[in-house]
Design a protein that fits this description.
The chain is 18% helix and 31% strand. The protein is of the alpha+beta class.
Length: 205
């Protein structure tokens, strides 16, 4: 669907690399066990869009590829590797960034508590923001056009092993240093398209 060829404009690429460099690597690599390096294909790069042609300033997530695209002008985008919702917990659709938070508090939804009470019931009243919080360093809150919170998030993680994996309860995740970069690019009101999974069954809440 999308070309891997880099669009090498020196100003954009230099700016992108500068943003990546200023964030502490510990945010991306702090995890249990041995140090894990994010695979090269999931690191951000500027690509040419082939089969879609959205305007600049949108987010598009393709769950089967495990990529998120922040669209630029002239049919190009910055591509990031992501983790997505497991099974039928992924929710395709068109949404809008209704709020943004740095080191956000996290509260599991009632459905999450019902599915996995041993994991989530203790946080029914919320978990403070911090490095161990499941939403990581930053979160973009996805709302409907009518400004209703969907409880879907694009957020950070301190576990890079979950990038390129269908692992979450429905949200898309980036490693912490990259979600910080994306967060700084994306204004409230941004259109977000979560494209469908191939052959997916009914969506669970």
């Amino acid at each position: 669907m999308l070309s891997r060829r880099n669009f090498m404009t020196s100003g954009l690429v230099t700016g992108l690399m500068g943003l990546l460099a200023f964030v502490s690597p510990a945010l991306a690599h702090k995890t249990r066990g041995k140090k894990y390096v994010l695979p090269e294909k999931y690191k951000p790069r500027v690509v040419k869009l082939r089969k879609i042609n959205p305007p600049a300033g949108e987010i598009h997530v393709f769950p089967d590829e495990f990529f998120l695209y922040w669209t630029l002008a002239n049919g190009k985008a910055i591509r990031y590797g992501v983790g997505v919702g497991r099974g039928n917990l992924y929710h395709p659709g068109t949404f809008y960034v209704g709020a943004k938070r740095e080191w956000p508090e996290w509260t599991p939804t009632p459905d999450m508590i019902k599915r996995q009470p041993r994991l989530f019931a203790r946080w029914a009243k919320g978990m403070p923001g911090g490095i161990r919080n499941p939403l990581g360093a930053r979160a973009l809150y996805l709302f409907t056009r009518g400004k209703r919170d969907t409880y879907l998030r694009i957020h950070g993680t301190n576990n890079p092993r979950t990038i390129g994996v269908a692992v979450s309860n429905g949200c898309a995740r980036l490693v912490n240093n990259l979600v910080i970069e994306l967060y700084d690019r994306v204004p409230v009101g941004t259109k977000v398209v979560l494209h469908p999974k191939a052959g997916a069954g009914p969506v669970h809440t």
